[in-house]
Write a structure and sequence with these properties.
8-stranded mixed β-sheet, 420 residues
Length: 420
């Protein structure tokens, strides 16, 4: 049964607006549900939604630009809340080697793996990193991404991490997309610190993060809590340093084993804990209590041929918000389609289409701390939305591959390739 959303009250209806968009079913995604408004309308002023409801009830906004669609659906703009889009080179040769039977250990011993990306990233100029990142980001934008988080983490030195973060900030200036920057210097141990992980954590906490904060290069700080990366104690040091600088935290947790990193993230009121294949019921309870979002990354699960699924039923039971993201990265999820992640989230992790769509709209926004401004079609939210010539929201999940035609509206304007 479609649910209409009424404006707050007639006295609060604005007297004018810049544009009105009508002629389609609105998929508002309020409270994580479709909450459909058949034959709806959206009024926009100054890049924000000022009215939303049934088209028949829409006020007569004199002078507003009228946009009329011929059916279809309008969803909130897509939020890709976990990516690693800035890096040097690619690892397609290693991908081919693995499929030909070469082990990851042998590839790493020959200089491959994450350190090959670190070397390529360190050697690349800011301009080269920017060009490569633009190539990867454009396919995401073409299918409706209006907000994206991008992490550093392949520089693993003060100079190279800052270089990556500057490129991430440039992407947000160049393109019509909201870009959130995350410092993931605690991603892996750089080769020059082999056997001295605590010293590298010192460098992050005492040298890198103060510069990141003073130059406003990051919106959050992330870390990788895993046996092959950093221990919970080391992660907590990074979290404490970030919090002292006023930066929120996130965490790669429970991807390959259970270290209860997600519970640690919850203790620090992290925006999100991500991956979570080995999270426990206790982890889910802790995340629910703190409001920490569970970000599921089916692309990495698929490419690594994992068999341990995230505990989705526990997240449901404890009402932990579930987000989905592409995890676009060179090694384990070279994914350039967030819509494909919708299908993978359903087929691999048994999400419903409604849960999957919530994962890249309202819950994806929450994972970035943007729940008050993004992720749903509501009065006061940023006017980021997408028109699709489709019959129902489930079609977004149903179609495999290809690029579905769509009209992307970013801050109240049909999105072009770049800002003027």
């Amino acid at each position: 049964m479609p649910v209409a959303i009424s404006p707050s009250s007639s006295s609060e209806v604005p007297s004018r607006c810049d544009s009105v968009w009508r002629g389609a079913t609105l998929v508002t995604m309020q409270n994580g549900h479709y909450n459909l408004i058949e034959n709806g309308a959206i009024a926009v002023t100054g890049g924000k939604i000022v009215w939303v409801g049934l088209a028949a009830d829409c006020p007569d906004f004199a002078g507003a630009t009228q946009h009329e669609f011929d059916g279809g659906i309008i969803t909130p703009g897509f939020v890709d809340c976990h990516t690693h889009l800035v890096f040097g080179g690619d690892r397609s040769a290693e991908f081919e080697q693995r499929l030909n039977g070469v082990s990851y250990a042998d590839i790493a011993a020959a200089g491959g793996g994450i350190l090959s990306t670190v070397n390529a990233t360190r050697e690349a100029t800011e301009g080269e990193l920017l060009t490569q990142a633009l190539f990867r980001l454009q396919p995401l934008l073409a299918e409706g991404v209006t907000c994206v988080e991008i992490k550093s983490g392949y520089g693993l030195s003060v100079e190279s991490e800052l270089k990556m973060l500057r490129v991430i900030r440039q992407l947000g200036v160049m393109l019509s997309v909201e870009v959130k920057s995350t410092c993931l210097a605690a991603h892996a141990l750089p080769p020059e610190f082999k056997g001295h992980a605590d010293d590298y954590i010192d460098l992050i906490c005492d040298t890198l993060l103060p510069v990141v904060a003073s130059e406003n290069l990051a919106d959050a700080v992330d870390a990788f809590c895993e046996h092959l990366a950093f221990s919970p104690a080391q992660v907590e040091r990074v979290f404490n340093a970030a919090e002292a600088l006023g930066l929120p935290v996130k965490l790669h947790a429970e991807q390959l084993s259970s270290l209860h990193g997600s519970a640690l993230a919850a203790q620090h009121h992290a925006l999100s804990a991500d991956h979570l294949e080995y999270a426990t019921a206790e982890d889910a309870q802790a995340m629910a209590a703190s409001g920490t979002v569970a970000v599921l990354l089916p692309g990495a699960y698929y490419l690594l041929r994992e068999t341990q699924c995230p505990p989705v039923d526990e997240f449901r039971k404890h009402q932990v918000p579930i987000a989905l993201a592409s995890d676009a990265n060179p090694g384990t999820s070279p994914a350039l389609s967030l819509r494909l992640m919708l299908n993978m989230g359903c087929t691999l992790f048994r999400l419903t289409p409604e849960e999957a769509l919530a994962g890249i709209t309202c819950h994806g926004a929450r994972a970035l701390g943007l729940q008050e401004t993004h992720g749903t079609l509501e009065i006061g939210k940023v006017a980021d939305f997408i028109h699709w010539p489709l019959s129902r929201p489930a079609e977004l999940v149903y179609w495999l591959g290809g690029q579905l035609p769509c009209t992307v509206v970013f801050r109240g304007e049909v999105r072009g390739e770049s800002r003027s």
